[in-house]
Amino acid sequence: MKDLLEALINGELPDERGRFGPFGGRYVPETLVPAFERLEAGVREHLHDDAFQQDYRRELREWVGRPTALTFAPRLSERWGAEVWLKREDLAHTGAHKINNAIGQALLAKRLGAKRVIAETGAGQHGVASAAACARVGLPCVVYMGAVDIERQAPNVDRMQRLGAEVVAVETGDKTLRAAIDEALREWVTDPAGIYYLLGSAVGAHPYPYLVRELQSVIGQEARQQMLEAAGGLPDAAFACVGGGSNAIGLFYPLIGDDIELIGVEAGGTGDGLGQNAATLATGTPGVLQGAYTIILQDDDGQVQETHSISAGLDYSGVGPEHALLQATGRVTYVAAGDDAALEALEELCETEGILTALETAHAYAYAREWAKDNPGKRILIGNSGRGDKDMPTLTKYPARTRTHAST
Amino acid sequence: MQAHERLTAAIRAANDGGRTALVPFITAGYPEPAEFVSTLQAIAKVGDVVEIGIPFSDPMADGMTIQRSSFVALQKGVSLEWIFTQLESAQGDIDAPLVMMSYLNPLLAFGYEKLAKRAAATGVCAFIVPDLPFEESEDIRTALEAEGVGLIQLVTPATPEARLEKLAAASKGFVYAVTITGITGGGAGLPAGLADYLDKVSAVSALPVCAGFGIRAAADVANVGAHAAGAIVGSALVEVLEKGEDPAAYLESLRPE
What we know:
The structure holds two protein chains of two kinds. Helices cover 45% and strands 17% of the residues of chain A. Chain A is an alpha/beta fold. Chain A has two domains: 20-61 and 98-213, Rossmann fold; 65-95 and 217-406, Rossmann fold, CATH 3.40.50. In chain A, α15 packs across α16. Chain A is globular, with a radius of gyration of 19 Å. The termini of chain A are far apart. Chain B is of the alpha/beta class. Chain B has a single domain, classed as TIM Barrel (Alpha-Beta Barrel), CATH 3.20.20. Chain B has helices spanning 3-16, 36-46, 64-75, 80-89, 104-110, 112-121, 138-145, 161-170, 194-204, 218-225, 235-242, 247-254, and strands at residues 21-27, 50-53, 98-101, 124-128, 150-152, 154-155, 175-178, 209-212, 230-233. In chain B, β4, α7 (138-145) and β5 (150-152) form a beta-alpha-beta unit. The longest helix of chain B is centred in the N-terminal third of the chain and has 14 residues, at 3-16. The chains are: A alpha/beta, B alpha/beta. Chain A binds chain B through residues 17, 25-31, 33-35, 172-173, 178, 182, 185-186, 189-193, 287-291, 296, 298, 300-305, and chain B through 56-61, 63-64, 67, 74, 79-81, 103-110, 130-133, 135-136, 153-156, 158-160, 163, 167, 178, 181-183.
């Protein structure tokens, strides 16, 4: 495992077979094998090519609005007894880190001659980012979204449609992100040559976990530089929420060679039982789901379990294979924060710093607060992966407790 | 004779008798677990090889019909262990060699060595794993072959020539030729170019070729049969079960007059 961590730090993973140590690989129907091979060849040809990188960096700068700010959080710092810095992906175009990946893959789809793009979405952030990116590059876009998620993330459905995407409600399976991915794969199988599948997280079959990591690493690269400049040094610990794990891998990957404690926070939902949470790494076991060998939530028969989280974006039974390796090597610690703790953390951030963060992101704050109590006086970096406007339909069900908090 | 060779022999025997081999597929335990063995026995009297579908929570290569049947079977408690127990109880009284079709994860959870032994002991001659491309298949293939159980490779119209040869050479029992680019349960008939495609697969394959996806009627079986050794009937048969109709009578209707 030590060798694997070294290989990861040296940029040698995934290997040629798309493996992060034992995790990863490519478990896809035969019909999709040629499509994956084309994608892999396309990634190899274009991703680190100067012309592609120039286009991508320009779009990040001029259209996405990067670099995103690094914000010092003085009032939160005082409460927590820590020095808290926030990497503000909520300020990126369309309101979350998802756009970094979406615009990169949309540019790639264009280069690979795709006729149309399909995407899945959970919270709707990746769907909105894909819709916007496809409009930007001039490709039609269809977004698959679970019926349960459509209800709880209604504002994002309207946004996707206004940005020109068609939104398909997925009524099969668990009607959340996992079912949306299954449905997108079924659609891709019908026209593997004409469709580009714009996957939104660092999950699935090779090369997606690698591709998404490369496109999201801009988060950690910027944050590292900004911390050195603004805070005068690297943080003692960095926190990010983990569903599939794209914002977390984007923040962590450029930091894994540094002496920084890295902590991924999953959705603890309402409890520890199977089906009550989406704490995959904290409670799951190895298996194959949606193209990769990774840690998943399953029963003894290998049936994938439904999950629960208040946040649609974390409500997923699997996790990216690179996170599975980072956990196995001990380099990153994965913990869970529950629904209630996330809601409280969201309110606290609103009240102290004037930032309405996404419910997903709130999980990172919920655990970071606990960690700060146990480790006083530390410098902390939090990946503020998205903004919470989309969560208003959920939040209105929970009356604001902020004003009573303020006096305590 | 290795278990997977029994499949090859059963298909060849049908062909030698002037028939296209008929390979019916059912989702195990659907619509009622209590009827699993009797349904299996009934369709094994008509079919030359019978495919048993292991229900899975994420059937990403399947259309609505098989998704629904998988969901119902899981709700009713069907598991791989239960299926093997049922097969053990019916031992010796199923007239056709069996194939299991399963997504990888239930097999992984069961354990490959135990899987191979239980399969060999219950008349299961081979496995079809729709989310397992050849490149990832070494571990399970080795474990199965140690017990004489085969891993059947799928090929599709999108499979390039060189890959087609590799997959055909690696397959055991028969080669599964997916007829359409899509998921199971497509209803719009068989695609143009089917004959050329099946001829091409048959030409490179030393094993018999069975065509699957989109086969619903006697005319489809006849069309496929002119260019392949066998016809696999899945979603259409599951629909028959869904409607509570007689699966054996439906299969009989697929045979030429």
